[in-house]
Amino acid sequence: MNENSQPSASRAAVIALGSNLGDTGATLQAAVRDLGATAGVTVERMSRIHETVAVSLDGPDPSRPRFANAVALISTTLEPLPLLHALQAIEQRHHRRRDVRWGDRTLDLDIVDIPGVRLQTAELTVPHVRAAERDFVLAPWAEIDPTATLSGTPIVELLARVRSEGQES
Question: What is the pTM of this model?
Fold first, then answer.
């Protein structure tokens, strides 16, 4: 895929949203509006907002502010890297800082999956490398698209596995 190529046919994409600083619910709603206002992007569905414990490199961290998480299903004519850059611009509009990996944040937007696309660059990996291990991604995604798959495995199966193993990372 050439990131400088002309817009392609519309394709589906799964976007995870998270926030644990400020008015998290309002931030996620505003981010979805911003996403829908992005040229080449249509928001098809958004999950309800799920509240979850913060996760650090060492696992769940209840001492940190809880996260508001959601998933949006979009259709887009943007190629993966321009889509990533659009998400990063939205994060910046919401005062996202990247000081600490897995740190607290006003807004986090991740491309979880673009069905049929496999991509690994220094900037972006699709599908997201940890999506299959994250309840806070799988639960909202299953809510709005229970028949979806990630790398060939039904997300409801991945969610059941994560919950049975007690994973939160």
Answer: 0.88
Number of domain units in the chain: 1
For residue 133, the 8-state DSSP code is: G
CB neighbours (10 Å) of residue 66?
Answer: 12
CB 8 within 8 A of CB 67: no
Q: Would 103 be classed as within a structural domain?
A: yes
Residue 151: give its domain's CATH number.
3.30.70.560
Task: For the chain, 169 residues long, give each residue's pLDDT as a single digit of tens.
Answer: 444 445 568 999 999 999 999 999 999 999 999 999 999 999 999 999 999 988 877 778 888 899 999 999 999 999 999 999 999 999 999 876 666 666 678 899 999 999 999 999 999 999 998 999 999 999 999 999 999 999 999 999 999 999 998 755 4
Q: Cα separation of 24 and 5, whole Å?
A: 36
Range of the domain at 127: 11-165
| Amino acid, single-letter form, for residue 107 | L
- Do residues 81 and 123 make contact, with C-beta atoms less than 8 angstroms apart? yes
What the block records as the tokens of 153 is: 């495995």
